[in-house]
């Protein structure tokens, strides 16, 4: 499996915010993947979006090894 296919395998996965994400903030999310749960540094997919702790998010982009861009999975 090449790097490109590994990167895209995370797109669309759900995670939960464990550290607030927003403009000027590098947050953190936990994502269930590879039979467990892993933490990733997280940025908002939309530059002005703020996402609070506990929010369910969708991974929009994965930058190896441990960075993701996310958006809120559900409208609040």
Describe the structure.
- This is TRAM domain-containing protein.
- InterPro entries: NA-bd_OB-fold (IPR012340).
- It is a single chain.
- The chain is globular, with a radius of gyration of 12 Å.
- Helix content is 8%, strand content 47%.
- The chain starts with a helix and ends with a strand.
- It is built from one helix and five strands, in the order H-E-E-E-E-E.
- The chain has a five-stranded mixed beta barrel with strand order 1-2-3-5-4.
- With 76 residues, the protein is mostly beta strands.
- The protein has one helix spanning 3-8; strands at 14-19, 27-33, 36-44, 56-63, 67-72.
What features would you highlight for this structure?
five-stranded mixed β-barrel; globular; mainly beta; disordered N terminus; 76 residues
Strand order in the sheet with the most strands:
1-2-3-5-4
Biggest beta sheet attributes: 5 strands, mixed, barrel
Low-confidence stretches: 1-6
| Strand element count | 5
Helix content: under 10%
Beginning-to-end CA distance, first to last residue = 38 Å
Organism: Streptomyces zaomyceticus
Protein name: TRAM domain-containing protein
InterPro entries: NA-bd_OB-fold (IPR012340)
